[in-house]
Amino acid sequence: QVQVVESGGGLVQAGGSLRLSCAASGNIASINVMGWYRQAPGKQREWVAAITPGGNTNYRDSVKGRFTISRNNARDTVYLQMNSLKPEDTAVYYCNADYNIGSYSTASSWGQGTQVTVSS
Question: What string of pLDDT tens digits covers the 120 residues of the chain?
Fold first, then answer.
């Protein structure tokens, strides 16, 4: 199994920056895609960014050019660098790890979330 824990949220003014971290533990070698999601009050959880085992990255349109997802060499920590933050980025941010169970099954692990609040 794989567990993930987020950290790094906080309160920042519009235009500011924050970096979120997601530390994975357990069977790191079984991890496929890792990603970040967010959920604003009264809204559904939405995908923000993802990174593949090969290092390819993808972003939702509203954060392209402002957010950067990356990981460390050990592939057990993923980061989300958020620049030029806007009030609409305010949400609880969740880390997700999709991983293999055996040869034919996959599972998904979620963190507890970290609050990001951007003031105008």
Answer: 999 999 999 999 999 999 999 999 999 889 999 999 999 999 999 999 999 999 999 999 999 999 999 998 888 999 999 999 999 999 999 999 999 998 889 999 999 999 999 999
Query: Where do the H-state alpha helices sit in 1-120?
Result: none
Question: Distances in Å between the alpha carbon of 96 and those of 33, 64, 66, 86?
Answer: 8, 19, 20, 23
Q: Which residues are within 8 A (CB) of 22 and not within 5 positions of it... i.e. 6 or more apart?
A: 4, 5, 6, 7, 34, 36, 77, 78, 79, 80, 95, 97, 111
8: phi then psi, degrees, rounded to nearest 5: 105, 0
Cα–Cα separations (whole angstroms), residue 10 to 19, 26, 114: 10, 27, 8
